[in-house]
């Protein structure tokens, strides 16, 4: 009988303390653990360092003043190329940035996952990534070629948060969409690892829900499991649901204090209800427009 | 024949002769160009849906999640056509931010995969509005590296006015062709640094009847390229 790792959202947030380095899975505005992100924002954690392929996870936590530094290669909402809250904070000079090439970040997670101090990579050479990260060093191949490469340092993480489609109570987890992103590496690179999911299944049901190669996490990679239906909203969680483009637009354009009062002041349940109410209003509006 | 159709064909031409490499694209015109090339003179080209699926003429032919894209980047089996907020005469590109990096006047995307792309494999650029704001003496943040910083190959820059390349002794930017209806003077005026201008600048080649038919009836029947 496997250890039961089920937790509440509040219990996950209790594990995150001010100043920690938090890894967030997904990619841009795709399969982000948004229910957990919202809960961190509500709990008003401070001075976090986020490691992420950045999307609204970055924007939301930055807008709530939780973030000191972002370690990333980009921050984008995909269908809306530029993240407004991230942009605002960068221009205000209130946010520190460790800017890497996307492949460098992958390599840094891979190094951490393999307990290596660094991994060599070409990406970064010649670019201003070297200028804005003066601590980056290069290495030379010890073989006859002598090639100079970037020594991408391990990106070590205190707590990682990822969202998957199906998980069992022990932490075996499956993605059902087209891309695993780097969620397994975020778990392997972190000291503590929490997985939220659309549906919690028995191990037997989980195994029956897809082919074995889509089982991205095993029990050794996960410390806690939370069932959060619609927990990636408004990012995509294919095939359970696509991105909520209209709501993402609302997030990107609404006055922040209004958005917070409407969607973030309650708990996750209140958020989902508020989104449903907003959705109803939108549908009425569209029906009216359609005549 | 419209300007957008000329641009689609000019983008397609960038991949001519590449063989079985992955065509990465940012934006509709380069995407139409890659698909057109795959359907005509570059049948080996690999094209994705912009996410994790490889497509041949719109039909699924394979799987390519991000981690596999990074492997193709490192292996060099890719030719990407990126956008550029700024571009200089050696092909250094910026998509990260405008102004000082420490506190930008305008934060853009971040470097994304531009450093890794440009050092590992062939890169081209698509610039929908050719202007001195894009074509600058010096970019604010080198995201994609140019030929003076060790780029693998910056092959083409396709804009709404012209096609540019780097076929000069010092691999700096040269005017390769002007689109029908555009003068050399217009391109010079829209470029914030001195281009190499050949004595004879040919017009960008016009799409063939077959190419026009594919673009209009098959690839983009709703004419999104014109918007």
Automatic annotation (TrEMBL), chain A:
- Name of the protein: CoA transferase subunit A
Q: What is the lineage of its organism?
A: Bacteria, Bacillati, Actinomycetota, Actinomycetes, Micromonosporales
Q: Which domain of life is it from?
A: Bacteria
Q: Does the keyword Transferase apply?
A: yes
A Gene Ontology molecular function term of the record: transferase activity
- Which keywords, in A-to-Z order, does the entry hold? Transferase
Question: Which organism encodes this protein?
Answer: Actinoplanes flavus
**A Pfam family it matches:** CoA_trans
UniProt key word Zinc-finger: no
Automatic annotation (TrEMBL), chain B:
Task: Name the source's superkingdom.
Answer: Bacteria
Q: What SUPFAM superfamilies has UniProt attached to this entry? A: NagB/RpiA/CoA transferase-like
Q: Where is this region: Disordered?
A: 200-227
What InterPro entries does the annotation carry? CoA_trans_fam_I, NagB/RpiA_transferase-like
| Compositional bias annotation for Basic and acidic residues | 202-227
Which Pfam families does the annotation name? Answer: CoA_trans (PF01144)
The record's section on PANTHER family has: ACETATE COA-TRANSFERASE YDIF (PTHR43293), CHOLESTEROL RING-CLEAVING HYDROLASE IPDB SUBUNIT (PTHR43293:SF3)
Record family assignment = Belongs to the 3-oxoacid CoA-transferase subunit B family.
Any idea what this protein is called? CoA-transferase
């Amino acid at each position: 009988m496997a250890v039961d790792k089920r937790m509440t959202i509040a219990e996950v947030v209790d594990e995150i303390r001010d100043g920690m380095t938090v890894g967030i899975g997904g990619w841009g505005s795709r399969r982000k653990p948004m229910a957990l992100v919202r809960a961190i924002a509500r709990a008003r954690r401070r001075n976090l360092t986020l490691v992420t392929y950045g999307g609204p996870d970055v924007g939301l936590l930055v807008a709530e003043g939780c973030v000191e530094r972002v370690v990333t290669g980009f921050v984008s909402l995909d269908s809306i190329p530029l993240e407004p809250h991230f942009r605002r904070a960068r221009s205000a000079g209130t946010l520190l940035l460790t800017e890497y090439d996307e492949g460098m970040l992958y390599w840094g997670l891979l190094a951490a996952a393999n307990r290596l101090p660094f991994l060599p990579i070409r990406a970064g050479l010649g670019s201003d990534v070297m200028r804005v990260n003066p601590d980056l060093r290069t290495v030379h191949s010890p073989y006859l070629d002598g090639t100079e490469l970037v020594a991408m340092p391990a990106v070590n993480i205190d707590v990682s948060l990822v969202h998957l489609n199906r998980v069992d109570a022990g932490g075996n987890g499956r993605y059902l969409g087209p891309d695993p992103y780097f969620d397994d590496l975020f778990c392997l690179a972190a000291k503590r690892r929490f997985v939220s999911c659309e549906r919690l299944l028995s191990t037997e049901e989980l195994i029956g829900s897809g082919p074995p190669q889509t089982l991205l996490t095993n029990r050794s990679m996960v410390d806690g499991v939370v069932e959060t239906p619609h927990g990636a909203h408004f990012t995509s969680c294919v095939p359970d649901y696509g991105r909520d483009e209209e709501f993402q637009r609302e997030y990107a354009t609404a006055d922040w204090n209004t958005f917070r009062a409407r969607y973030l002041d309650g708990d996750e349940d209140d958020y989902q209800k508020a989104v449903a109410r907003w959705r109803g209003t939108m549908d009425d509006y569209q029906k009216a427009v359609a005549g | 024949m419209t300007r957008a159709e000329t641009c689609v064909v000019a983008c397609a031409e960038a991949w001519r002769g590449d063989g079985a490499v992955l065509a990465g694209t940012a934006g509709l015109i380069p995407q139409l160009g890659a698909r057109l090339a795959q359907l005509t003179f570059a049948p080996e080209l690999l094209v994705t849906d912009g996410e994790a699926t490889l497509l041949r003429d719109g039909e699924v032919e394979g799987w390519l999640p991000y981690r596999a894209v990074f492997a193709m980047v490192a292996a060099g089996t890719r030719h990407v056509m990126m956008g550029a907020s700024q571009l200089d005469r050696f092909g250094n590109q910026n998509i990260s931010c405008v102004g000082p990096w420490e506190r930008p006047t305008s934060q853009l995307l971040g470097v994304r995969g531009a450093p890794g792309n440009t050092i590992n494999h062939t890169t081209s650029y698509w610039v929908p509005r050719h202007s001195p704001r894009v074509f600058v003496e010096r970019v604010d943040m080198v995201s994609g590296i140019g030929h003076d910083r060790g780029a693998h190959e910056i092959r083409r820059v396709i804009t709404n006015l012209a096609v540019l390349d780097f076929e000069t002794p010092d691999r700096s930017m040269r005017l390769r062709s002007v689109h029908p209806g555009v003068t050399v003077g217009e391109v010079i005026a829209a470029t914030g640094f001195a281009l190499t201008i050949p004595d004879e600048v040919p017009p960008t080649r016009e799409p063939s009847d077959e190419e026009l038919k594919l673009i209009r009836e098959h690839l983009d029947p709703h004419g999104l390229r014109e918007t």
